[in-house]
Amino acid sequence: MRRAALIGAASGWGAGFRHTQEGPRVLQQLGLAERLAAAGIPAHWSAMVEAERDHRLAAELSAEEKFGIVARHNAGVADAVAAAMAARELPVVLGGDHAIAIGTWGGVARGIGAPSGLIWLDAHLDAHTAQTSPSMNAHGMSAAVLLGHGLPEFLAVGGGVLRPENLCYIGIRSYEVAEWALLRRLGVRMIHMDEVHEGGLAAAMAEALAIATRGTAGFGLTIDLDGFDPEDVPGVGLPVPDGLRAAETCAVLRSLARHRDLRAIEIVEYNPALDHAQKTARLVQDLLTSLLVPATVTPRAEAFSDEVEAGSAQKMRHNQQGESAFQVNRLGTRSSSAA
């Protein structure tokens, strides 16, 4: 049984709402590694990759400055992932916004040295380039980069590490036409949320797994927490109605538990300042428990401590006073302030 190497990717510079920077530290302080160990999952924190600037202390930066911070942070994430793989551990990368996917899967490609596939659970496509993005936020560009499209500084870390035929989305319901058109042209499979409702999540996951493992040296799983229904994930900055349900998703993910070809796991966009009663943090724990224990055994780890949340996540809520929530327009697409 490979030990899980928990890697904190502490940056919110890829998003308009940057409090995801605190997500990995809060999960660490809440005792995530210890809770997984209590469930029989060997796990340890192997790295905490911090952005070079704390968003709480920095003035507003230009798009070019933010891109530089994101690129350098992703280079550090890629190094940590490749190091975990060299140590024969399973990288579990915890964000942070979804721009960290550039580093996560760039590091996996370096560690494997061969093509891999990716199952992408999300409400959004994250497939913009600088030419199409309405907001110029890097978390909306990571998938395009992994497919070989984007800024040179991002491509240097994770450019072109995925083949379109080995990428599959599940739960999509909020996007812009330009990013959809790029993925459609490349032949990427996108399983929209209405398809999940019609055919079931288990069938969607089975199709995604077949796509991600076809002719590859393994596959990864990236889970954007805003792919879930807002009722289950209060701790995200871009909630989109009618999403994946937590209980069903955990049950379906048990089919991947200890899959011999699983190369890495990534969970992103946890915003502890928006969380209520640790509900989203507990989902992170439940997702990892579902994926990392044998399919026939699903022990539930102990709940996180209220005292720890009071001393960490809760105290950060004051940082958000005066910040308006992101908006989703009537078609369910990201607004120009969020994409």
Question: Any overview of this molecule?
Answer:
This protein is α/β, with parallel strands linked by helices. Helices cover 35% and strands 16% of the residues. It is built from twelve helices and eight strands. It has helices at 23-29, 32-38, 63-86, 101-112, 142-146, 152-158, 177-186, 193-199, 201-213, 246-253, 279-292, 306-311, and strands at 4-10, 43-50, 90-95, 116-121, 162-172, 189-192, 219-224, 262-268. Strands 2-1-3-8-7-4-5-6 form an eight-stranded parallel beta sheet, sandwiched between helices. The chain is globular.
Proportion of residues in extended strands? 15-25%
What is the structural class?
alpha/beta
Q: Tell me about the largest β-sheet.
A: 8 strands, parallel
Calculate the terminal CA-CA distance, rounded to whole Å: 39 Å
**What pattern of helices and strands is seen along the backbone?**
EHHEHEHEHHEHEHHEHEHH
Globally, the shape reads: globular
Give the radius of gyration.
Answer: 18 Å
Question: Percent range for helical residues?
Answer: 25-40%
Unreliable runs: 306-338
